[in-house]
Amino acid sequence: MVTPEWWISTRLRSRLVLQTGRSRKGSAMNSRIKRGEIYECLFGRYRPLLDPDGAPVMAGTNGRTEYTRTEFQGPIPYEIQKPRPVVILGDHKGQYLVVPISTTQDCHSNPRKAGEARGLHVRLERSQLPDLVRYRNAPTCWAKSNMVQTVDRNRLRPLNRRGSPPPRVSDDCLASIQRAVIRAIGCQGLLDAVRDLSQMDREPQHSPRPPEAPESEATR
């Protein structure tokens, strides 16, 4: 059960991390972050919905806490939340474009409308992820490219031990995530155009036949 005291203490700890630029492990983000690497990002947490007495409101009888959708100082439901791994796609002046990783598969009553079927979510096998305790029982994760966003550098922290290189996805996986982002912003036509050009480049080029010379009087 989420209590107001727990939520306040979590917010204070997250704010301290963001202000100091250090993670709970005490490691500062001093190394250069590169495209394709995996870091943990502190997205923050939902704020519980409270009743007039200050107690959290429960959703139905399943014991789950209801969250507010009118407090915009942090994430609200249907936005990405809590600390989670992200794939780095780019950076600009201390701002990083990231795609969050989730163990929750996007499902739909129509399978063709699910995130992976639409090409918005990229499946990541367990071997592509760092050895995190909370992900050891998750054989598969998804990079959710439709939830791409820009975050400040101080939200990122390394997932590995100090001194060891950060984990990264393969080049093919990174290219799949980048294509999924293009689909998410409604530019599937760009991918189709590139595919058509690639097919044209692979087709054999036939040189035109030279024109036949006119017959002379001597050869008639």
Overall description:
By secondary structure, the chain is an alpha+beta fold. It is 21% helix and 20% strand. It contains three helices and nine strands; from the N terminus they run H-E-E-E-E-E-E-E-E-E-H-H. The strands form two sheets. Strands 1, 4, 5, 6, 7, 8 and 9 form a seven-stranded antiparallel beta sheet that branches. Strands 2-3 form a two-stranded antiparallel sheet. Strand 2 and strand 3 form a beta hairpin. It is elongated. The N and C termini lie far apart (103 Å). Mean pLDDT is 78; it is low at 4-8 and 12-28.
What's the structural blueprint in terms of helices and strands?
Blueprint: H1 4-20, E1 38-42, E2 58-59, E3 64-65, E4 83-92, E5 95-102, E6 121-125, E7 140-144, E8 149-152, E9 156-157, H2 171-184, H3 188-202
Antiparallel strand pairs: 1-4, 1-9, 2-3, 4-5, 5-7, 5-8, 6-7
Largest sheet: 7 strands, antiparallel
Using only C-alpha atoms, the radius of gyration works out to: 25 Å
Cα-to-Cα separation, first versus last residue: 103 Å
Number of helices: 3
Structural class of the secondary elements? alpha+beta
| Topology as a string of helices (H) and strands (E) | HEEEEEEEEEHH
Mean of residue pLDDT values? 78
Low-confidence stretches: 4-8, 12-28
Q: Percent helix among the residues?
A: 10-25%
Total beta-strand segments: 9
Gross morphology is elongated
| Beta content | 15-25%
